[in-house]
Input
Amino acid sequence: MFSRLCYSMPNKDKISRFEERKMATAINIQSSCSEEEWKARQRLAACYRIFAYLGWDEMIFNHITLKVPGEDDAFLINPYGLHFSEVTASTLVKIDIEGNTLDGSTYPVNKAGFTQHSLFHRELPDVHAVIHTHTTATMAVSSLEGGLQPINFYAAAIAPRLAYHKFEGITVHEDEGPRFLTSLGKKRMMLLENHGPVVMGRTLEEAFLNHWVLQRACEIQMQTLAMGKPVMIGEEVIKKHLDNLSQASIDPMQQGVPEFDAMVRLVDREDQSWRE
Ligand SMILES: [Zn+2]
Output
């Protein structure tokens, strides 16, 4: 997920056999996994398609991971080598915290990529979904002194809930794990400085919606700062804004569901193959 993801290369032989694997895997996985897991696979596959639709993909890099319902040490991740727009329910790979494949999938997984995902899944029981992207807007704001500034409607809602982590270079050292957790604290969204966001959720839909708000806040900040000096929102107004939002919020487990479903319908108009 972190920097070394961006530079480590997959096995060329494995990549060239993706199409062969696709047919066999599609049949095997659905018949061998639980109904709950299959639903989670479809939901996560749809999420990858939504990210691709919104332009939040990064070629074959980055990850969105989701815990397998009812299984503490198992989660689903994209196969390394597929674009987000190619991910399907069957091609997602079920792995454990150590990165071992649990579902017999022959698709490769970028072990370096999920190192930090597995840390958050392991250490934070409330976290069921973890998103890490390199979108231009979020990476740009991650690289800006002061990070996300409270200068627009979306930022006012998200800036107080955002943690920051100093860039330590290519993330190959296990000892950075505790520092990630210290930087995060009780928050569930973090900008990795000079790198990009990590957005977590109690559900996939909640994480998706928070990523959407963060993305919008960053896009608007980029445009605003390009024009000149922004109007800052005062702390009192931010507090009132957050209070109003919390009063209006729905059941936490339903957070982001209507938005996610609307995006699924949009994706479906172009391609429904994520269900397979
Ligand atoms: Zn990264």
Summary: The two ends are 25 Å apart (CA to CA). The chain has one domain: 34-275. Residues 1-10 have pLDDT under 50 and may be disordered.
